[in-house]
Specification:
Layout lengths: L9 E5 L3 H12 L3 E5 L5 H18 L15 E3 L11 E4 L5 H14 L5 E4 L6 H5 L8 E6 L9 E4 L6 H13 L5 E2 L9 H17 L5 H10 L1 H4 L5 H8 L1 H11 L11 H8 L11 H23 L6
Parallel strand pairs: 1-2, 1-4, 2-3, 4-5, 5-6, 7-8
Antiparallel strand pairs: 6-7
């Protein structure tokens, strides 16, 4: 049995899209060795560039010193096949939401690593109970869902299915804490986990408000930013109700809930954008890339703000 007190140092990552690159950056920053595989060969250089750029940002902001990044390239190893991941003590899969692809990956991984090496999936779209069925050693399997940018945020949700052993959950929690995360442990498997269920409930109502003509996209974004976006980093929904008068929420939900969208269909607004390969905003030139950079800077700023209040409020 895998000893959770044993120092895990070699982390395997299968899939190096944007999320996989961020997870690799996070692991390397916090002292792990990463053994990575992607079906797309160009991902190796993309990942190295992503990590290097992220570390420069951390150095520029005086979050880490340049000396702390010395030799980080030696802790990133790209391999050409899953069979080359036998040294891994923990593996996380971050490929696209394809059940068949994930099944193939797990089958190969189980054939090359020790039987108690924990295998985690970053999925939030496929029930881990369904994925767990494909493993021989089912007890080792957990869900480990990260948020973008993975190397900055404190978010990490860890979920289990019926056959998941406690040791696997605790290893996932321990690794998350070593990476500076604040892991949230779900008691059982549920589609969408916690954060995505809350987010998609918001998305459904936001698109509904546009479709019924209450306001345009920009107006709804502004309203959300200037209200929910203002308090959500400090308070979750339950603490916010405590602080702002719980009885009023009982009254408003009674009147408002029957009027909220409860559609189980993809919103027409989203279907239209996907079909026309367009986006909600009209980005000119490098504007979309500029927004991505702004988001990264903003995330760093939020992280610093959270640190200011960590001693005064339990996060």
């Amino acid at each position: 049995m895998n000893n959770q007190n044993e120092e895990i140092i070699n982390i395997g990552i299968v899939g190096l899209g944007l999320m996989g690159q961020g997870i690799a950056s996070c692991f390397i920053r916090y002292g792990f060795n990463v053994i990575a595989y992607s079906r797309t060969a160009t991902r190796e250089q993309e990942t190295l560039h992503h990590i290097s750029r992220g570390y420069k940002k951390l150095i520029d902001r005086n979050i880490i010193s340049e000396s702390e990044t010395i030799g980080w390239q030696e802790r990133f190893k790209y391999v050409n096949s899953l069979e080359d991941m036998k040294e891994c003590q923990f593996i996380i899969e971050t490929v696209g939401e394809s059940l068949e692809l994930k099944k193939q990956i797990y089958k190969t991984i189980e054939s090359v690593v020790e039987k108690d090496v924990v295998i985690a999936t970053n999925t939030s779209g496929i029930l881990i109970s369904l994925l767990q069925k494909e493993l021989i050693n089912k007890e080792r399997f957990i869900g480990m869902h990260w948020a973008e940018p993975a190397e900055i945020t404190k978010y990490l949700e860890i979920s289990r299915a019926a056959d998941t052993a406690d040791y696997a959950v605790e290893i996932g929690r321990n690794i998350g804490e070593r990476c500076g995360k604040q892991p949230t442990i779900l008691k059982f498997d549920i589609s969408g986990l916690i954060s995505n269920r809350l987010m998609y409930a918001m998305i459904r109502e936001a698109t509904n408000l546009v479709e019924i003509g209450v306001a345009d996209i920009e107006t709804i974004d502004r309203s959300f930013r200037n209200d929910i976006g203002w308090w959500a980093t400090l308070c979750g929904p339950f603490r916010w109700m405590d602080l702002t008068g719980l009885p009023i929420y009982a009254k408003v939900t009674e009147e408002l809930f029957p009027d909220l969208s409860n559609s189980d269909k993809v919103p027409e607004l989203i279907k239209e954008k996907v079909a026309t390969e367009s986006k909600f905003y009209n980005y000119q030139g490098d504007e979309e890339k500029e927004w991505e950079d702004i988001w990264t800077d903003f995330t760093h700023d939020i992280s610093e703000l959270v640190k200011k209040y960590e001693d005064r409020a339990k996060f």
